[in-house]
Amino acid sequence: MAKRTGLVLDPLFQRHDPGSAHPERPDRLIAIEQALRERGLTDRCTPLPLRPATRDEILALHRQQYLDRLEHTCRTGWPFIDCMDSGICPDSYNVALQAAGAVLEAADAIVAGTVQNAFCAVRPPGHHALPEKSMGFCLFNNVALAAERLIGVHGLQRVLILDWDVHHGNATQAMFESRPDVLYVSLHGHPSCVYPGTGWETEAGTGEGKGFTLNIPMLPGAGDAEYRRAFDEQVTSAVEAYRPQSVLVSAGYDAHRLDPLAPICLEDESFRWMNQTALAYADQWAGGRLLSVLEGGYNLVVLGRCVADHVESLCR
């Protein structure tokens, strides 16, 4: 019998190697796999298949010129694309296609009822990847592509993307800010002091999408109390009004107090209750359908623990 939680976890995603000194390095997935196996969680999940996304699937949100440029730049062995943060290697283009394809397969499996929810331990991450260029370690916007598939292929009309990575998902916002079929909610470090400098409270959507972007920037030192207050006073009421048909999570763990890249001070327990809150949203309005995709998190011990906690919550 298939288990309720799907899992994408494969050594293939370690082949994207921007260099041993880069924060977004293959060791992140090694730490995640070790933590999941130590808790017996891989045996409690249904393994989901890998496949590369097709060019047409990527072109649903990204531009042809960018795909061609990324493929060529990887093939030539250049160490980065667009900015030095976005490190690449010769395998990066193909691995990024596999990451996007695995997330699309997971979305399909959830809609089909093969699994009820899923976690995708894929890299490179995605929420900074714009239609026309890479930013901030990201090549293709995996979560955004999943949302687009749920809408364009499966006919959903209301998709929630909940992004708790410490860095604002500027590209996810840009792709959907003029549309009402995605509610994008982001809790992140304040744009005055945290990359990429976007995600101000005044960024609330445009045109038909006005009111369907909710940014909650957090000042340095913010912790559990500030995040709980944000959910209690802003996030839950927005989700209740929206009544999403599916929940997607950009699951970053770099808002932890021990993470080296940002000045936010969440504890493990903070992520545990955010997990439970996201699941409650999915249970109440989306038939339990929740798809979470790895974004940031650069303290390897913390990352392993928090991902294991997340997958354990999905396997409840």
Describe what you observe in this structure.
The model has no long low-confidence stretch (mean pLDDT 97). The chain starts with a strand and ends with a helix. It has an eight-stranded parallel β-sheet, sandwiched between helices. The chain has a two-stranded antiparallel ribbon with strand order 3-4. The protein is globular and about 50 Å long. 38% of the residues lie in helices and 15% in strands. The chain is an alpha/beta fold and 316 residues long. It contains nine helices and ten strands.
Brief synopsis:
By secondary structure, this protein is α/β, with parallel strands linked by helices. Helices cover 38% and strands 15% of the residues.
Domains, number: 1
CATH class: Alpha Beta
Q: How would the global form be characterised? A: globular
CATH superfamily: Histone deacetylase domain
Q: Which structural traits does this protein have?
A:
globular, 10 strands, 15% strand, single chain, eight-stranded parallel β-sheet, 316 residues, alpha/beta
